[in-house]
Amino acid sequence: MDSSDTPSPDLLADRYQVIKSLGTGGMARVLLAKDLNLQRQVAIKILREDLIEDPAFRVRFLQEARAAANMVHSNIVTVFDFGHDADRYFIVMEYVEGTELKTLMRRRGPLPVDEAVDLMIQICAGVGYAHRAGLVHCDLKPQNILVTADGRAKITDFGIARALAAIDADEHTDIVWGSPQYFAPEQAAGDAPSPATDVYALGIILYEMLAGELPFEAADPSLLAELHQVAPPPSLRAHNPTVPAAVEQIVLKVLSKEPSARYRTADQLGRVLETFAVQRDVEPAGILPTSPDEHPAHALTTPMPTGPSPQIDWLGVGLGLLAFLAVGGLIPLWLFACLLYPSCPISIP
Fold this sequence. Notes:
CATH architecture of the largest domain: Orthogonal Bundle
Strand order of the largest sheet: 1-2-3-4-6-5
Helix content: 25-40%
Largest sheet: 6 strands, antiparallel
CATH topology of the largest domain: Transferase(Phosphotransferase), domain 1
Number of helices: 10
CATH superfamily of the largest domain: Transferase(Phosphotransferase) domain 1
Number of strands: 11
Number of domains: 2
Shape: elongated
CATH class of the largest domain: Mainly Alpha
């Protein structure tokens, strides 16, 4: 059933007819199926048979269903149902006709700046929605992002998502879930995650989209974790000179080792990228010049007006003169009235 593209009579919960396999991940396999009740195609994630006996995996599987089921957003894959049939635990999700972002990058290499920024703005919208809902995804990576034919990004796999309310800031664990290539430094150290942890992973994804490769790579997971914790990321523009300096600065901020030095939430990162996109539309050369040659000297100076000299406002001059005469005429009148009285402090010799 995993490799065949022919329809199968296999049913789940007497409702979902399996059509074909869509792929297999570390924790589950994904199938295309038809919901016989609602007459629509759905994607079904089935927990792998060798993991069914592990209570921890069953808990994570149920957690993913519950976490994602409460989120309805155009950039998040919608969860419809959860259940088990005999020894099969499954999640029923929206079927998205698209390609994993990782596959897209392998196929095309570095993405154009505008396309990469647009995709990241969409991803930030979905992750930001999760943050506002009180969840940290904790496993953001291109394999968990689907891109449709019309360029819409959809986030999936909330299997290790954490509720913000349940996170102790002082907690520490020796077992770290997630993908080491996209670990935030604090996540690699086993410290408590936060929305800034997701923001770091988004920075790695944006770097990878623009550079065509990851900033940190190592065969040894412990060495990879150390690189995330101490090594500065390689120059993005050395990999891709078309990347504006402004975008490189955004990526460097997002990849800060200290969580407080990053944007705090995906929403903040998304707004910064939206501002860049708007300004890029106005100034095609980018927000910031990458070299003195990008903007000629004459473009950096404000030209002086070259039109005719302004006309003299004779009406204003005339009104000012009348006002002066009127005030000046009151002074002799005041002197004459004062001299009529013995107590006048002014005397004429």
